[in-house]
Design goal:
Elements (H helix, E strand, L loop, with lengths): L2 H61 L11 H27 L9
Helix pairs in contact: 1-2
Length: about 110
């Protein structure tokens, strides 16, 4: 091989190794995104449960406990604590996802 071929071959080897690293990083990134999806769905389930507890509580106030099952004594307090604790985590996750969007084609717009 001449010098130009040696340089070209070395570049191709380097690029092949870089492609391998990129593929590995893509799989790792997708795994992280799946974990983020699970976190979002878990939070959505918590929100739905909290909404149901609020609706049941409102129904009890309006129609009485004979119309709706009584909530456990500490249920609203537990949901309120979870709501406060989840707000910061929710905001951080949403901010991180929006930051990812800036790196997508067309800035992540649909």
């Amino acid at each position: 091989m001449n010098e130009r071929q040696d340089t070209s071959h070395a570049d191709q080897l380097r690029q092949g190794l870089e492609h391998h690293r990129w593929r590995r990083e893509h799989v790792q990134a997708l795994a992280i995104l799946k974990r983020a999806e699970v976190a979002i769905l878990d939070h959505k389930a918590e929100i739905l449960a909290h909404d149901a507890a609020i609706a049941r509580h409102d129904e009890q106030i309006e129609l009485g406990e004979a119309h709706a099952d009584a909530s456990p004594a500490d249920e609203l307090a537990r949901f309120a604590d979870a709501h406060r604790a989840g707000a910061e985590r929710h905001a951080a996750l949403i901010d991180a996802i929006h930051a990812i969007a800036t790196h997508l084609p067309n800035g992540g717009s649909q």
